[in-house]
Amino acid sequence: MSQENINNSEVDIVIGALQADLSSFLNEWRPIISRFHLIIVQDPDLKEELNTPEGFDLNVYTKSDIDRIVGSSGSTFFSGYSCRYFGYLISRKKYIISIDDDCFPAKDNMGNLIDAVAQHITNLTTPATPFFFNTLYDPFREGADFVRGYPFSLRSGVTSAMSCGLWLNLADYDAPTQSLKSQLRNSRYVDAVITVPARALMPISGINIAFDREAVGPTLFPALKLAREGNFRWETMEDIWSGMCAKVVCDHLCLGVKSGLPYVWRRERGSAIDSLRKEWEGVKLMEEVVPYFQSVRLPQTATTAEDCVVEIAKTVKEQLGPVDPVFSRAAEAMVEWVKLWKNIGSASFPGI
User: Fold this and answer.
1) Which candidate, 25, 6, 9, places its Cα nearest to that of 57?
2) What stretch or stretches form a coiled coil here (predicted)?
3) What is the Cα–Cα distance from 84 to 103, expressed in whole angstroms?
4) Residue 312 contacts by C-beta under 8 Å, 6 or more apart in sequence?
């Protein structure tokens, strides 16, 4: 699908701004995103005024906007990378594409600029096949189809709700891996998209994703906060936690999640070694988190994403709460998020 065929009135680009000067970032993305509406959410801890270039259809939201819309106590939801979730909350578009401000357009193996927006929308507007794996990857890509033995009853697929892109240069390694392999860089561009199988978990990163807001918007939230959480990628787990919630919900609601293209080029920010102590808490928590999500099953009465999040919160509090208080706090934040999503969902905002 070319960018010309995308209905830009259905797409919001959400950017969480952790740096004040976005001129270089936006100018590099200009050929790809200038046709779309941008929601830029400034990290509430960033005191400088944002610098953005001319020629973009954008709305900038600061701490004062967050306090006005959500309430002063709610701004703690949106610190650091979590500021992006405020953009998800106030958007009114069907599709959201979320790109971090340390990511730039990448090039494919032929040196061509990758249109990340077009590829994300292609992933979301073609069916997913989570219930039977196609060994030629995404059968809905041009030049591909279903392989011999693939059941015809499953070939229509299901609605794609999430598109998880990848990164060239600095991949999304954890702090221990990046510290031990400080020169490790991802230079391998793989021209492939796959549907993640049903009941298979994955660490969904918020760095370069797109999703159908109407279908799964409430499943992406800033709930899990580490005790010594910082502002760098290695020091947070909020997207990993919400991503696992989102995958469980997609499986329950028979929605698909795709991974692979599009790539972005990710630049370095922060020190993995300095972040190691802060993230180690999250590394240990994953040993509890993964078995929980592997075993959780949602009742048939949960028919919406909001219902599912509330049900997950209940079992998180019951099963994981006694393990560590961080889980009880996460469960409470999930319930609070659903209330916020419903309350804010009926409001209107300038430019949205």
Assistant:
1) 9
2) none
3) 14
4) 245, 248, 249, 296, 298, 334
Residue with the two structure tokens 């309350």: 343
DSSP 57-103: EEEEE-HHHHHHHH-GGGGGGGSGGGGHHHHHHH--SSEEEEE-TTE
Angle between helices 23-33 and 116-125 (to 10 degrees): 50
* Count of CB atoms situated within 10 Å of the CB of 7: 10
Q: C-alpha distances in angstroms, 126 versus 68, 139, 142, 200, 285?
A: 38, 10, 11, 20, 35
pLDDT in 10s for each residue of the chain, 352 residues: 444 456 788 999 999 999 999 999 999 999 999 999 999 999 999 999 999 999 999 999 999 999 999 987 677 789 888 999 999 999 999 999 999 999 999 999 999 999 999 999 999 999 999 999 999 999 999 999 999 999 999 999 999 999 999 999 988 888 788 888 888 999 999 999 999 999 999 999 889 999 999 999 999 999 998 877 666 666 678 999 999 999 999 999 999 999 999 999 998 767 777 666 665 677 788 899 999 999 999 999 999 999 999 999 999 999 999 999 999 999 999 999 999 999 997 666 665 5
Q: What gap in Å lies between CA 101 and CA 286, rounded to an integer?
A: 26
CA distances from 229 to 81, 187, 190, 238, 277 (A): 11, 29, 33, 10, 10
- 67, amino acid identity: D
Written as one string, the DSSP assignment of 72-84 is GGGGGGGSGGGGH
pTM confidence score: 0.94
Distances (CA, A) of 320 to 11, 22, 134, 258, 293: 36, 40, 35, 28, 11
Tokens, residue 14: 């959400």
CA dist., res. 235 & res. 333, Å (int)? 19
